[in-house]
C-alpha cells in the first residue's frame, strides 16, 4: 500500500551551521601554517573590490589573517553550537595548515593536531563534522609554482593531502565534501578564488572584476579538479567504507524573465552550464552532451589523459550538497534592470524583495531548486549554505534583534519541508555563517549572517567577544522541534 502521509523531516535530520576556515579560523601564521590564496586578498566593501597582492603589503588589511580567531576560540564556539543543539557542523580544513606550500611530501604535524583537538571537541557534544576539503584556500605556494589548478600537477598534491586527512581522521569524520562551490570556475569570479590562478602573475588584480580571463584556462582547471575529486572519492571509500563523500555546488537558480522561448532557452542554458555541468560530472561520472557542445562552440579544448574518463566514472559522489541564497532571472533583453548575487547576478525579478546587498529573497525558489536537483539525480541532498547577510545593530542592553534573519530562515525551512513532502530526500541543513565571519566576496564583517555576533568591524577592530542574537534562541527551538516549531 502506498504511504502518502507526510512524515515531516527525518528524525535523524542533520541540523547545524556552516563556516569556512579562511573566513573564520585566523591564526594565519601559527602552528606552521603557510599562505593560502585567501591570505593574499585584501579587505574590501560592497563598492570597493578586494585586491590580490602577489606579495603581502605592510600596512594593508587582510581579513583572513585573524578572521574571528576560531583558532583560539574553538572550544567557546563549539560550546555555543552545542547550546543551539547542532547535530552537525560544516567546517573546512585549511590545506596550508597541513601542507604549508601544498607540495610537501610530509604533512605538518602541528596542523594535524589542531584538527584532532577540534574534532575531539565536536565529539564531546555529539556534533557530526561535515568537512570541506578545499574551500577557497588553495596553497599560494601552488599558485606561485604551478599557477594553481591550471596545472595538472596540483592533482597529486591534492590527493596526497586527502590521503593524509582521510587516514588521520578516519574514525572521527564521516562526511566529506571535495571542493566548495566547484562550479565557480565556470565564471571569471572563480579564476583565483576557486582555481588559485593568476592571469597576470606580476600585477594586482581586482578579484571580482569581470575580466576576460580565458575560458580555456578555467575549464581546463575545472577538469583537473574533477579528476582530483574523483580520485579522492575512490580513495576515501578504500580507506573507510563508511565514508560519505559529496559534491558542493553554488546553485544559481535562474528563471526565464518571460515566456518568450528565447528567455526560456537562455534560462535552461544557464542552469545547465552554471549548475549541472559540474554535478553531472561528479554525480554521473561523465561530461554531459551540452558541455561538449559548449566547448566546441567556444573553442575550448579539454586536455585529457588516457584514463581520465574511467577515473571520473569510478569517482562518483555519494550525496549532493549546495548553497542557495537567492534566485535571478535571465532575458535576451539587454535593457532590463539587473541585480547582484552569490557569484552570478541576473535580471531583477519584480516579484521579489532583496537584501541590503541586492540579493533577491526567494524561499519558494529553494523548493523549486530541491525538486530540480532531486528529479535529476535521486541521491541524498543537503542544503549546506543558506542565509541572510545583513547589518546587525547591538542595542544598549547588548541584545541583537535580528527578526529579519529569522523571517528569512523560517520561510526557507518551510519550503524545505514542502520539498520533502514532494518526495525529495533531504538529509541536512547548515545555514551559512552560523557565527559571524568574514564575507568571501567583499571581505567585510559588516555583512553578517550568524546566530552568534562577533565584536569586530570591517577594519579589524574589536575584542572578538561572542554574544547570542535573537536568532540564536529561535534556531535552538527549531532544532529541538525538528523543524516543527518555526
TrEMBL record:
Residues covered by region (Disordered): 28-50
Signal peptide positions on this chain: none
Keywords for the protein's UniProt record, in alphabetical order: Glycosidase, Hydrolase
EC category name: hydrolase
GO terms of biological process kind: carbohydrate catabolic process
A Gene Ontology molecular function term of the record: 6-phospho-beta-glucosidase activity
This enzyme's EC code(s): 3.2.1.86
A family per Pfam: Glyco_hydro_1
Compositional bias annotation for Polar residues: 35-47
Cited InterPro entries: GH, GH_1_N_CS, Glyco_hydro_1
Entries under SUPFAM superfamilies matching the protein: (Trans)glycosidases (SSF51445)
GO annotation, cellular component aspect: cytosol
NCBIfam families: PRK09589.1 (NF007154), PRK09593.1 (NF007158), PRK09852.1 (NF007356)
Family note: Belongs to the glycosyl hydrolase 1 family.
Protein name, per record: 6-phospho-beta-glucosidase
UniProt source species: Clostridium beijerinckii
Amino acid at each position: 500500500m502506498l504511504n502518502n502521509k507526510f512524515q515531516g523531516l527525518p528524525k535523524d535530520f542533520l541540523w547545524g551551521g556552516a563556516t569556512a576556515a579562511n573566513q573564520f579560523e585566523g591564526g594565519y601564521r601559527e602552528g606552521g601554517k603557510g599562505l593560502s590564496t585567501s591570505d593574499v586578498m585584501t579587505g574590501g566593501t560592497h563598492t570597493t573590490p578586494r585586491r590580490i597582492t602577489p606579495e603581502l603589503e605592510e600596512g594593508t588589511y587582510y581579513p583572513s589573517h585573524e578572521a574571528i580567531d576560531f583558532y583560539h576560540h574553538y572550544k567557546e564556539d563549539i560550546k555555543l553550537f552545542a547550546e543551539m543543539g547542532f547535530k552537525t557542523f560544516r567546517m573546512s580544513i585549511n590545506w596550508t595548515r597541513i601542507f604549508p606550500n601544498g607540495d610537501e611530501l610530509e604533512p605538518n604535524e602541528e596542523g594535524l593536531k589542531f584538527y584532532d583537538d577540534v574534532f575531539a571537541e565536536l565529539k564531546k557534544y555529539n556534533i557530526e563534522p561535515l568537512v570541506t576539503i578545499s574551500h577557497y584556500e588553495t596553497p599560494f605556494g601552488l599558485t606561485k609554482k604551478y599557477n594553481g589548478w591550471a596545472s595538472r600537477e596540483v592533482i597529486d598534491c591534492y590527493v596526497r593531502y586527502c590521503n593524509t586527512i582521510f587516514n588521520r581522521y578516519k574514525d572521527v569524520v564521516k562526511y566529506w565534501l571535495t571542493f566548495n562551490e566547484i562550479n565557480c570556475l565556470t565564471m571569471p569570479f572563480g579564476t583565483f578564488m576557486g582555481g588559485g590562478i593568476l592571469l597576470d602573475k606580476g600585477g594586482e588584480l581586482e578579484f571580482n572584476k569581470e575580466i576576460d580571463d580565458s575560458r580555456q584556462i578555467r575549464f581546463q582547471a575545472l577538469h583537473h579538479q574533477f579528476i582530483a575529486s574523483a580520485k579522492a572519492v575512490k580513495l576515501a571509500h578504500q580507506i573507510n567504507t563508511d565514508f560519505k563523500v559529496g559534491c558542493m555546488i553554488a546553485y544559481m537558480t535562474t528563471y526565464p524573465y518571460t515566456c518568450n522561448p528565447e528567455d526560456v532557452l537562455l534560462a535552461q542554458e544557464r542552469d545547465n552550464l552554471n549548475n549541472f555541468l559540474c554535478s553531472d560530472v561528479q554525480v554521473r561520472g561523465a561530461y554531459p552532451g551540452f558541455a561538449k557542445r559548449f566547448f566546441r562552440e567556444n573553442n575550448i579544448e579539454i586536455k585529457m589523459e588516457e584514463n581520465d574518463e574511467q577515473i571520473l566514472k569510478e569517482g562518483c559522489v555519494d550525496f549532493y550538497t549546495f548553497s542557495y541564497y537567492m534566485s535571478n532571472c535571465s532575458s535576451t533583453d539587454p535593457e532590463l534592470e539587473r541585480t547582484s548575487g552569490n557569484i552570478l547576478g541576473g535580471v531583477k525579478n519584480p516579484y521579489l524583495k532583496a537584501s541590503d546587498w541586492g540579493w533577491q529573497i526567494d524561499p519558494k525558489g529553494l523548493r523549486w531548486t530541491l525538486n530540480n536537483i532531486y528529479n535529476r539525480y535521486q541521491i541524498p541532498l543537503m542544503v549546506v549554505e543558506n542565509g541572510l547577510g545583513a547589518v546587525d545593530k547591538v542595542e544598549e542592553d547588548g541584545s541583537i534583534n535580528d527578526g529579519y534573519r529569522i523571517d528569512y530562515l523560517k520561510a526557507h525551512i518551510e519550503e524545505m519541508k514542502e520539498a520533502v513532502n514532494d518526495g525529495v530526500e533531504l538529509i541536512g541543513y547548515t545555514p551559512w555563517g552560523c557565527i559571524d565571519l568574514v564575507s568571501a566576496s567583499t571581505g567585510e564583517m559588516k555583512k553578517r549572517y550568524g546566530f552568534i555576533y562577533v565584536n569586530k568591524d570591517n577594519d579589524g577592530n574589536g575584542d572578538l567577544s561572542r554574544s547570542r542574537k535573537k536568532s540564536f534562541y529561535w534556531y535552538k527551538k527549531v532544532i529541538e522541534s525538528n523543524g516543527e516549531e518555526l
